[in-house]
Structure formats: C-alpha cells, structure tokens
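User: For a reading group we're discussing how well predicted structures match intuition. Take ATP-binding protein. Before you show the prediction, I'll give you the sequence so everyone sees exactly what went in.
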Amino acid sequence: MAALIPLRRRPDGAMPGERHSASPDDAADTADTAEDGVPDVRRASWVLPIAPSSTSRARRLVRATLRDWAGSVDGETPEVAELLVSELIANVLRHGRGEPVLTLLLQDGVLRCEVEDEARVPVRIRDTSPDEEESGRGLLIVESLSRSWGVCPTSRGKAVWFELAVRC
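Assistant: Thanks. Here is the predicted 3D structure of ATP-binding protein, as structure tokens, for the group to look at:
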C-alpha cells in the first residue's frame, strides 16, 4: 500500500472546522485547471448533521457527485465509494464527536474520500472472530476494498480517509 503524507487542510482547501452545505447543489465543488485547460482536480465537501440519516445522505451525496464527475469516474468506483463512506460516517455517528465533514477529491486517477470529526481518539481495526458481535467490521471493509486508507490528526480532531483507483 502506498503511504501518503497527511493533509493539514481538507482537500477542498478549507481549514478543518469550516462549514459547508450538505446539499449536492451547494457543495464546495471546484475544479483546478492545468495549463492546457483540462481540470486536474475535482473537490466537494459537506458538513453533515449528527443524525442517523447522515449515513444515507452521505451515500446520496457521493452518488450525485460522482455522477456529475461521470466523465472522470466509471466502473465500480461509485458503489464502492458509497459503501466505504457510509462505513466512515457510521463510525463517526457511533464513536466520534461533532458534525462529520465529508470531502471527496478526485486527482490523477485517484478518488480520496475523507470524513473528519472532532474526536481525537485514534481509530483501529477490531480484531474480531466470526462468532463475535455483528458490528465493528467497518474498517476491515475499508481496508479490504480501498487502495489505501489512514487517519490523520486535524486541528479539529481527526480525519479518516481512503483512496480508490479510478478509470478516467
């Protein structure tokens, strides 16, 4: 797995803790342009409420955003991204603090999804056997289906991220 240097700023360029709307139309969606006029980076970010409905809302936001970026994202990436984002949002709602901030970044054939919250407690993959409780396998799923994943501290708390390779 590739190691990445943790971002000090969210991929949308904002400092942790800055608020963005949670609707696809109002998202901080930007595209940086290379010298040839072709976008290099696509970004979107939302603050979600602390509510069980945020998990399904996050899946809808990912689906809508990646559909908007359809020229850049295809294959199974949108479905996998939806699944993994819902796992990270569910973790924040169950174990984290504060409103989750969901950020998507598409650059150079890599989709990075990040969920930030205010908890400073480190996350870890649970070592569970098949006979143990049904919950607690979210990060195992993230590890299994993503190209890479990790946790980085932010001034607000922490951000858990994963990356998926995309066909452009």
